[in-house]
Amino acid sequence: MTEFGTNLAAMVTPMQPGGALSEPGLARLVEHLLATGCDGLVVGGTTGESPTLSEAEAAGLVRAAAARVAGRARVIAGVGTYDTASSIRRAREAEEAGADGLLLVCPYYSRPTQEGVLAHCLAVADATELPVMLYDVPARTGVAMAPSTLIELAGHPRIRAVKDAKGDLFEAMAVMSRTSLAYYCGIDELNLPYLACGAAGLVSVVANVAADRTASLIQAVGDGDLVKARAVHEGLIPLMDRLLRSGTAAANTKAALAELGVIPHPSVRLPLLEAEFRP
Question: Which DSSP string do the residues of 126-145 spell out, in sequence order?
Answer without folding.
Answer: TTSSS-EEEEE-HHHHS---
